[in-house]
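Case study B.
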Amino acid sequence: MLYSEKVLEHFANPKNVGELEDANGVGEVGNAKCGDIMRMYLSIDGDVIKDVKFKTFGCGAAIATSSIATEMIIGKTVEDALKLTNRAVVEALDGLPPSKIHCSVLAEQAIKAALSDYYKRQGIDPAPIVGGAGGCDDCGECDVCNAH
Amino acid sequence: MLYSEKVLEHFANPKNVGELEDANGVGEVGNAKCGDIMRMYLSIDGDVIKDVKFKTFGCGAAIATSSIATEMIIGKTVEDALKLTNRAVVEALDGLPPSKIHCSVLAEQAIKAALSDYYKRQGIDPAPIVGGAGGCDDCGECDVCNAH
Amino acid sequence: MERFVYADNAATTKVSDRVLAAMTPFLQQNYGNPSSIYSIGRESKKTIEEAREKVSVALGASPAEIYFTSGGSEADNWAIKGAAATQAKKGKKHIITTNFEHHAVLHTCEKLARDGFEITYLPINDEGYITAEQVREAIRPDTALVTIMYANNEIGTIQPIKEIGKVCREAKVWFHTDAVQAVGHVEINVQDQNIDMLSLSGHKIHAPKGVGALYIKKGIVLQNLIDGGGQERGKRAGTENIASIVGLGQAISDCTQDIETKIKHVSAMRDRLIENALKIPQVRLNGGLQNRLCGNANLSFTAVEGEALLLLLDMNGICGSSGSACTSGSLDPSHVLLALGLPHETAHGSLRLSINEETSDEDIDYIIKTLPPVIERLRAMSPLWDK
Amino acid sequence: MERFVYADNAATTKVSDRVLAAMTPFLQQNYGNPSSIYSIGRESKKTIEEAREKVSVALGASPAEIYFTSGGSEADNWAIKGAAATQAKKGKKHIITTNFEHHAVLHTCEKLARDGFEITYLPINDEGYITAEQVREAIRPDTALVTIMYANNEIGTIQPIKEIGKVCREAKVWFHTDAVQAVGHVEINVQDQNIDMLSLSGHKIHAPKGVGALYIKKGIVLQNLIDGGGQERGKRAGTENIASIVGLGQAISDCTQDIETKIKHVSAMRDRLIENALKIPQVRLNGGLQNRLCGNANLSFTAVEGEALLLLLDMNGICGSSGSACTSGSLDPSHVLLALGLPHETAHGSLRLSINEETSDEDIDYIIKTLPPVIERLRAMSPLWDK
Ligand SMILES: Cc1ncc(COP(=O)(O)O)c(C=O)c1O
Ligand SMILES: Cc1ncc(COP(=O)(O)O)c(C=O)c1O
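Model:
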């Protein structure tokens, strides 16, 4: 398990840890069985993500991806946030070990789940905008780990 | 393959190497397939073994057992020589590695074969005195090595 | 970093100075092949036999019953696959083991299951123990082998080996034990304890990695795992790893000497560590405290994931582990903790601290001081903690 | 003793200073378990990957195709038994090998024969070579594997590996080669030479005993020999023998560097040795001179037994061997010499001298001077000489 300096940095000093009282979009993905749970709190004003916080139960990579993902969308428009891919998260961290790629997927999905929640609260069907459920089930990693 | 000091000594400076022109008992045991051939020359006067020489093709232990066995019977009576066991040879050498015990058997048999030859030359049937043929076939070692 | 505390001796240990000193000549000057006939080869051979003698003494076995291997995994594979092959010829294709063995045993059994063997996995109780009674009930006429670990690598529980061995002897079933974690930490006597085969590994007792041994009781015939040259009396081919074998001999002598005193000393440190760690809220000790390796503490903290915990401890100078070392790179929760009956989220979050005689009281103090804030910090990040 | 000449490098070599220097830190300070997550474990892991890279470069393979083992014997066993198990599932139970392989291959094939495999043993010619044509003719639709050694350990003959590999590729049959004697002494490129699996061993190239590697071409799936933890990408369990792996990496880099120059230099010494030895009456060189390991001389002397010869040479400071090291403790004549067609008494009496780049011209002079009187002395004792 070789983490990049960047991952270790974000793990040691994660940005935006916590909850947002005034969040208008909250999403949680993962499950304890898989060993990772990520919860994202978004505070969106107009089209812009004003604030983000996260809470994560998971490995070092899960915490680091949560941290960097929040940094990558803070101050961005919802549209831009929707474009955030797990690949971009991995790149921003200077790479992740193969077995930890799923953490970056979780980060992407956690943001999408929070955005879905935001749309729902606005009375808008998120499906056409955000896409699939964004849940853990899509990742397939659990099957991998259980089949191991 | 751990040889005792005694074995190494007899190997490095074997006693009674050679042939006896005036031998009146000559015996050879072993075969090249087995990797050991021992030939003993006895010069017997009355009941006493006056001189012994040997020629051996074989491993260090074969040479050392030949050497010590000649020493053990020189000047002895034929009767005493017949009592020489392979065990006594092994003991005199401070032991032999298990896989080399057959060399001591060969030494015993070579002496017996030479004594048989001596009796035959005297017109005496050696069988009741010396026992079995004293040939290589009795040792069984070759079966062991070929079955390996 | 205030301090560096290595508390992962169950994963691997440092080669001791005494062991290194014993090995060094065989890495360079005395390089003869032990099977060679000339003097430097003969010396190597003699040295190997001395090491074999030392191992046998430590186990209460005879030297002819000790075979050197490349480690614990090879010893386990050889014992189990070798016994299975021998016994299958007699129509015996049933193996009894437990659900908390090391992967070297578990995966080997799974392999045999694919080859048509039937495996009974005895469940441990919630304290981490198997009983001899369970073994007795599981034995069948076609049982080829019972393989049960001496002491568990994660939770440190020591099994009733002597009693299990007795049950096997009575039923005339071969009994193998993976004692990789037990050797040097528990008093072992294969004769008294009715053990037919026993695996051990050097790197858990200050010898180098890549060397181990299998004790095979006289009279038991295993199929070879590694065929070839006549080394190890024709039972384990390969030019002998002399330097490491010498190291293993030295190490096993050292670690079994005065073992009672050592156990007392290390247990006391372990007890103080556990006692203080248990003051943290929502923590549990995994595995019973009674029959437990003197250096093992295994703790779970609600809502804290194991890998993150290890990483943060490492950043504070403490080396511990989560699950066994050889799986901590994977995504799996610990099969041992699942076997104990823990839910998945807890099985992901255990911390194993394994200390030994080199650990100091100050080291324990430092762990006791560092652990609570580290746990608190991770819990502050955890979505499970405020639930 | 006037001089000490080690001329048994085919049996084992001395660990070089460079290798020892590379290993030392991993015997003590850097003792972390490579599977562990904390920093000292992570460093061990990285070091292993660097060593893997070095081995792959030396063979023209990619690092993902290199697996570390406990030596050449384990590599051979794994390749052959592992391939046999995989192929048997497809109904392929025929193996092609030769009659002059190392025991690690021969005894493994014999084991498989007992398990129902059919083995074709291709005969070498009287110079010690196999042809690709022989392999082509022996291949059948149910052929699971061809395993032919790269260079023979006793007589040093180098086989036409590239051509044999080509025949196997064309027939879509897996090709394994035991290159334990070839690595570091011959230029190897597994891609150019159509090799699917290749075994090597550290102690033949100045790395320590007890470490080796198996190259497995991408796409080839072997059953594991040692199951357990996830080391070596789940294919070879057991805590990694880090120090020795590092040593192997260093050694293989060193011995494959500037290999052409080395081969030229050593061959010249060998040729001078052989030329002079052949002046002794009734002597023969075993194995052809053309494609021969640069350091190998194998000689038979009529009426002289091998062990006695070695012992007497040892007393004169010269370490050589008779047959392969791992059988020289036994009573058997060399199966390699029998395969060459020599009669038993000659097969008992061969002398292998294996020199390398550390051998000096003075060493060669000394051997040339010492050999004749030693032979003469043993012949004087031999009942076969005057016949
Ligand atoms: C050709 C050949 N194959 C295999 C081996 C076995 O290697 P190891 O001793 O490392 O197991 C040897 C040497 O002993 C050898 O020369
Ligand atoms: C209980 C147990 N069995 C087997 C092994 C495997 O030993 P090795 O790493 O020497 O192969 C280990 C440790 O890794 C262990 O703890």
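The domain at 5-146 of chain A is CATH 3.90.1010.10 (Sufe protein. Chain: A). The remaining cases will be described in the next quarterly update.
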